[in-house]
Amino acid sequence: MKQIVSLTLLFALALSLCACGGGADPAALELLDPACIGLINREKAHIQDPYSFRCIPQVYGASKDSINYVSYVFRNEINSVTDNPTIFPEEDMIISAGNFHGQPLALALDNLAIAMSELGNISERRTYQLLSGTRDLPPFLVANPGLNSGFMIPQYTAASMVSHNKQLCTPSSVDSIESSQGQEDHVSMGANAATSAWRVMLNLERILAIELYNAAQAMEFRRPARSSSIMESFLEQYLSARKLSSIRKVLIRKMLGLYQNESGSSQGKTLLKVIFEKLTSRKGNQTNSPAAPKTGSNL
Question: Taking Cα atoms as reference points, which of 152, 147, 140 lies closest to residue 299?
């Protein structure tokens, strides 16, 4: 059995070559090195992993292809003539046409929103799997689950944003409304597609941050096993900035710090600060593990 499992890296390389038309992504292959053989060769209780783990290359590859298409469209459009009318001085011609129409960008932006949304969708499923109490990981990714809900609420947050993204991915380009006395009787609604894609991107950043927060915690329960050298180096840098929770913590403190570091919105910072202060100023609020109740306590 162990000899079969040891061939996993070889199979992963072969599958990668098949899936992407003969050219594997060198950056992805760097994540597979002999340092993670210990994790790969562990005794397996399950024949297969859930799709959200096993199908990462296929799902991410599909989104990457869509994003590459969007980039192609934008490069074309940004270098195209969009004047109306279009004037050709040498030919002494003035032509009213439709190069200004936003349909190419609208369709691409709808595609972009869907591609990003799917990255968040599969990410949240992995987050849920990590804290579901399966595969030798403790429920909610804390050593003493129960009254301590651990990482449950961040997963709620990710699930909420994933659901929001699904609503934002309703295509804007299929919509149109007549204006200018019927002269402009078909419009792209590309601006709405752009704002929706922007909001999906913001949600995706936070969904991925929540997955990283959970994955780093989960990896600590796998010690002393180690991942690849690249991943271990990354985790070391991440953990040095964010001490993980082994006891009850107010996770909003960490998320507030993350938001303040990344957000350019002073209004957003102020709002989060107000929420945080209200939570932490309540009488009897505890940020550490609560003391054990006395005998006969109603707790």
Answer: 147
Residue type, position 50, single letter: P
Torsional sign, CA 89, 94, 95, 99: positive
Please give the pLDDT value at position 149: 83
Span 51-94, pLDDT tens digits: 999 899 899 999 999 999 999 999 999 999 988 899 999 999 99
Contact by Cβ (8 Å): 139, 131: yes
Q: What is the helix, strand, coil percentage profile of the chain, to 5?
A: 60, 5, 40
Question: CA 199 → CA 105, 158, 212, 259, 263, distances in Å?
Answer: 17, 14, 20, 16, 14
Please give the structure tokens belonging to residue 157.
């947050």
- Measure the CA–CA gap between 140 and 129, rounded to whole angstroms: 10
Domain map (residue ranges) of the chain: 55-82+99-174+189-249, 251-281
Q: How many residues would you count in the chain?
A: 299
Model pLDDT, residue 248: 42
CATH superfamily assigned to domain 55-82+99-174+189-249: Fumarase/aspartase (Central domain) (1.20.200.10)
Residue type, 194: A
Cα–Cα distances in angstroms (integers) from residue 125 to residues 78, 129, 130, in the given order: 37, 6, 9
